[in-house]
Amino acid sequence: MIRVRVGDFRLGEKERKALLDVIDSGRISEGKKTSDFEKAWAGYIGTRFSVAVNSGTSALMAGLTALKYKYNLKPGTKVVTTPLTFIATINAIYATGFVPVFADVDSHTMVITPQSVKEALKCEPGARILLPVHLMGYPVDMDSINDIAKANNLIVMEDAAQAHGTIYKGKKVGGLSELGIYSFYIAHNVQAGEMGAVVTNDAQIFKLVKKIKAHGRMCECEVCTRPSGVCRILDSYKGDADFDPRFCHDIIGFNFKVMEFQAALGLTQLEKADDIFKKRNQNVKYLNSGLSGLSDILQLPYYSPEVSYLAYPVVLKDGSVISRKKLRAELEASGVETRPLFGCVPTQQKAYEFMKAEYIKKIPNAQYIGTNGFYVGCHQYLKKEDLDFMISVFKKILQDKK
Ligand SMILES: Cc1ncc(COP(=O)(O)O)c(C=O)c1O
Predict the structure, then answer these.
(1) Residue range 86-108: average pLDDT?
(2) pLDDT for 249-269, tens place per residue?
(3) Is 316 helix (H, G, I), strand (E, B) or coil?
(4) Would you say the CB of residue 82 lies under 6 angstroms from ligand 1?
């Protein structure tokens, strides 16, 4: 039986009440809770605006589509990004009609480096977007990324789906570029089941994302005021047509709207975000100290008090005495749940097989981690006994293999 899960979610009194409040309000589709969450999330990250959408993938697609409209980007626009990420990042690039270009990652922090981005740009000087991913909570060196962008006339958008609250030079990641995205999927630090958000300081991007998430319709209000008999856009319309902004669309959009239940749950978790961050961070420190004796076999996670850890990522060192498959199987059989570190998208995911030949020799660190990396839980519900249990399980499996 699994004792230590990769993630956990507990519905306490506050969460139950938040869900019941939505039922009692009589409105379950997007409304006040959603706009409350948007304001609270923008406040937490430190940006002017935040737009909630129904998943992190939708946030990526809405953000990329907003860039497409704002900058008149053509199909085939190149996006420099990481090969080591959850596949949604790359799927969203393709779904928007753009093409990913991969820069290799740092072998320890697992995120793209300024050097690898410069090398990728040498091969693709026509790229227009840089899309760094703050994987596992680790911050990309955003000052250098923004400098490279400025020098090369590039737009920067952050995927901070896995990095809720990570601090980079005093500011939260996701808010360090033109726009950033988050996922509040159940396994993430601030959980809503399924939900995402786009943050930005740019009023044009904000308006575009709001339209894109709602079919490209011509509304502009934060929350629809029609139920109270007022419509600002309609009331200011001077033409003769039978104009209804809800059913007039000036750009092509999607339905990425959220349910009030998601926003209500997100609000309850956001209240605890600092505690969640702290607990996960302390757990990583504790596990690192307990497992330090195994550091000749395992690359333990790089530790920083400023990282908001999604999980506890480890990488089997070169020439290891055990395969990842066997180690994961033994951990799971002993009660510790594991997940592979996503895989290197262009060379290890079947969906992107058509890129394999181009990248097979270009991104060795991503390939290595994609094959030898995995993660276990460090979540806020783990107690000291659970962490000690994890340490003892790792030791039992690995110590006699030394
Ligand atoms: C890096 C990254 N980007 C995007 C996403 C997509 O988020 P969602 O699952 O909410 O669609 C995820 C999900 O885990 C992710 O890890």
Answers:
(1) 98
(2) 999 999 999 999 999 999 999
(3) strand
(4) no
- How far does CA 274 lie from the centroid of its chain? 18
Same domain? For 260 and 351 the reply is no
Residue 316: CATH number of its domain = 3.90.1150.10
Write out the two tokens for 21. Answer: 């409040």
Q: 249 with 62: CB under 8 angstroms?
A: no
Rounded Cα gap, residues 122 and 128, in angstroms: 13
Is the domain of 262 the same as that of 280? no
Q: What total of structural domains would you count in the chain?
A: 2
Of 254, 271, 288, which residue sits at a domain end? 271
Residue 353 pLDDT greater than 90, yes or no: yes
Is the backbone of residue 170 left (phi > 0), alpha (psi -120 to 50) or beta? Answer: left
Write the pLDDT tens digit of every residue in 21-51. 999 999 999 999 999 999 999 999 999 999 9
In a domain, 26, yes or no: yes
Question: What does the pLDDT average to over 153-165?
Answer: 98
**300 and 242 share a domain?**
no
The CB of 183 under 6 Å from ligand 1? The reply is yes
- pLDDT tens, residue by residue, 358-398: 999 999 999 999 999 999 999 999 999 999 999 999 999 99
Q: CA triplet 198, 196, 383: central angle to 5 degrees?
A: 125
Per the prediction, the chain carries an average pLDDT of 96
CA torsion angle 141 142 143 148 (round to 10): 100
- Domain with 289, as residue range(s), is 273-399
Q: Does residue 3 lie in a domain region? A: no
| Residues 6 or more apart whose Cβ sits within 8 Å of residue 239 | none
Which helix (H) or strand (E) segment holds residue 396: the answer is helix 384-399
Q: Could you give the CA distance from residue 58 to residue 55 in angstroms, rounded to a whole number?
A: 5
Q: Ligand 1 pocket check: which of 86, 87, 158 to mutate, most ligand atoms within 8 Å of Cβ? A: 86
Q: What distance in Å separates the CA atoms of residue 185 and residue 195, rounded to the nearest whole number?
A: 6
Pocket test for ligand 1, best of 173, 185, 375 (most atoms within 8 A of CB): 185
Across the strands, what pairs with 333?
A: none
Write the CATH number for 151: 3.40.640.10
